[in-house]
Design goal:
heterodimer; A: 2 domains; 9-stranded mixed beta sheet; 4-stranded antiparallel beta sheet; 11 helices; about 30% helix; B: alpha+beta; VC0802-like; 2 domains; about 35% helix; globular
């Protein structure tokens, strides 16, 4: 279902014109009101009047996460603090958090793009949305909340965690839409199965999953276990939270809501814009935000863009599901390895649930990658040689996918720490 | 002749086997025979117990991966050449032994061999033809 036919199916020429106008206005505001951006533009010798159409965006400076942290808390504010009605921040686990300050207008935009997101999977007024994204400074909870309210659906603001209660609510309220991280959805499915709850009887129709990378194989597993249409959604606090892009029911790339968030893909090493279809780092500019607008934010997410028309009727550019992170990328013996590639392989081996952990060590100057995979009943055999051949088979498939040798180790079920939020997949023990 | 064996996946970690035997003790489950096969990383514990269904349920509830496998139990004379006689019969019938383990039944001066083969039906008839006594699940329980 398309929520806003006017904007979501705008002919591409009209869209480019709209984006150009919005960019000009944005650059004018940033140059006048945000010293941080004035300095950066002056540094590059770019004046607001140099920007006349959307293609001119490549002349503008990038913004990095580190720069956003340096001006913590209010260095990116483009309006008077009186105008701000809500503040969210990133988790700040790796340093000072990044602040996203919203005006009433920004919350309105957020509600709109999240309504578009939830509508892709058919969410409508009569739906009951069990929102298991965390409420609080994290943008997931309230982002989904505003979108569901905009649609007029019923929101259950259960927030993350408390799995027993999630299952009880699913059963008692007959939720039709579930929103959470993809790994938590499988955790929930496993817990429901242990409690003897048949999820096919609940009436769930769609799930919106995001905030961490996942794979096509994981989607199939989620859809089979939770009996719903699993939609990949994308967003980040530095931009607005969830609502930057969402898959449609064709599940073939995420439509970027580019009348609000303009995407580019660049070569992370040179900063040069890459043509459609080439993998690189996603860069986003907020075209309409007023509180803390951002120019060319380097997301560190790896993807590529596809501007061909989608069968759903939306005209917006699609980004491929995030393939990895420029910063989570492991370099093992000189080879770039994304955890998502390893996950694809493990999931392709029949019967293995996506509970795995990657342990990188350096022995005798050589990097070694151990892939721990949890045992389950379908994979188990009473014969040692079958278990060993399972390990070898996974190693061979990993070699085929990554071109490096790995060591696969089968471990007992539930021996890998589960988190109810983002899954901790990598333990890098190398001291370099 | 066919009996049910429980196989359990165990990681090669200190105290892991003791945690399992503690559960069996608490549940009052008696082991008739067992073998532990291992590699550097993990092991497979194979158990013959008096109450198969309850044992599997208890282990699964405790988070173990456990599976029931059909194996054959054969009574062997407790004297030199006892096992060899059986292996000769199986070899002549071109039956592969995947693994086996044995224990001595003191009250009967006999040994019991638990054996996993690639073709159970063929093995049972070859042994019967050679006049080698097999043990039923009920008899095994009462030993």
């Amino acid at each position: 279902m398309i929520w806003d036919t006017d904007y979501e199916t705008l002919p591409r020429d009209d869209l480019a014109k709209l984006q150009g106008e919005r960019l000009c206005r944005l650059v004018d505001v940033l140059y006048r009101r945000v010293p941080f951006y004035r300095r950066k533009m002056d540094g590059l010798g770019v004046k607001p009047l140099d920007i006349r159409c959307i293609e001119d965006i490549t002349r503008l400076p990038f913004t990095t996460k580190d720069e956003m942290r340096e001006v913590y808390p209010f260095g990116l504010l483009a309006v008077d603090l009186n105008e701000i009605v809500e503040i969210h921040t990133s988790s700040g686990t790796t340093g000072k958090p990044v602040v996203d300050a919203y005006t009433a207008g920004d919350i309105d935009i957020w509600s709109e793009v999240m309504a578009r997101t939830l509508a892709t999977g058919g969410t409508a007024r009569h739906d009951i949305v069990q929102n298991a994204f965390g409420y609080g400074l994290f943008t997931g909870g309230l982002g989904v909340h505003y979108g569901a309210r905009r649609i007029g659906a019923t929101v259950i603001p259960i927030s993350g965690g408390n799995t027993k209660r999630q299952i009880a609510v699913l059963q008692d309220f007959r939720s039709t839409v579930l929103t959470c991280t993809p790994s938590y959805s499988l955790y929930l499915a496993e817990a429901a199965r242990e409690e003897g709850v048949d999820l096919s009887k609940i009436g769930l129709k769609a799930g919106f999953f995001g905030a961490e990378p996942w794979s096509e194989t994981m989607r199939k597993e989620i859809e089979a276990k939770l009996h719903l249409l699993a939609i990949d959604i994308y967003g980040l606090t530095e931009i607005i939270g969830p609502g930057v892009a969402s898959e449609c029911d064709r599940q073939d790339g995420l439509h970027v809501f580019e009348d609000h968030f303009y995407p580019e893909v660049i070569d992370p090493a040179t900063g040069k814009t890459l043509p459609d279809g080439e993998k690189g780092e996603l860069v986003i500019t907020t075209l309409t935000k007023s509180g803390t607008p951002v120019l060319r934010y380097r997301t560190r997410d790896i993807t590529y863009l596809d501007r061909r028309p989608c069968a759903c009727g939306r005209t917006s550019v699609r980004m491929h599901r995030v393939l990895g992170r420029t910063d989570d990328m492991l370099i093992i013996r000189g080879v770039n390895v994304f955890p998502s590639q390893i996950e694809e392989v493990i999931l392709a081996v029949e019967g293995v649930e996506p509970h795995y952990q990657l342990i990188v060590e350096r022995r005798d100057q050589l990097d070694e990658l151990e892939v721990q995979v949890e045992m389950n009943e379908r994979l188990f055999s009473d014969e040692i040689r079958n278990l060993e051949s399972t390990e070898r088979r996974m190693e061979e498939m990993l070699y085929g996918a990554l071109n490096i040798h790995t060591r696969v180790k089968l471990v007992e079920p539930k021996s890998i720490a589960r988190s109810e939020g983002k899954a901790k997949r990598i333990i890098d023990k190398r001291t370099i | 002749m066919s009996v049910k064996q429980i196989s359990v996946f165990l990681e090669n970690k200190k105290g892991r086997l003791a945690e399992l035997t503690e559960i069996l003790e608490r549940e009052g489950i008696n082991m008739r025979a067992l073998s532990l096969a291992d590699t550097a990383d993990f092991g497979v514990l194979r158990l013959i117990v008096d109450d198969v269904d309850r044992c599997v349920a208890v282990l699964r509830a405790a988070g173990y991966v456990a599976q029931v496998t059909e194996v054959i139990a054969i009574e062997v004379e407790d004297r030199p050449g006892g096992l060899h006689r059986i292996l000769k019969v199986l070899g002549a019938a071109a039956i592969n032994v995947e693994y086996l383990y044995a224990y001595v039944e003191q009250r009967k001066a006999a040994a019991v061999v638990i054996c996993k083969v690639d073709d159970r039906g063929k093995a049972v008839s070859a042994l019967q033809k050679a006049g080698i006594p097999s043990i039923s699940a009920d008899v095994l329980k009462s030993l």
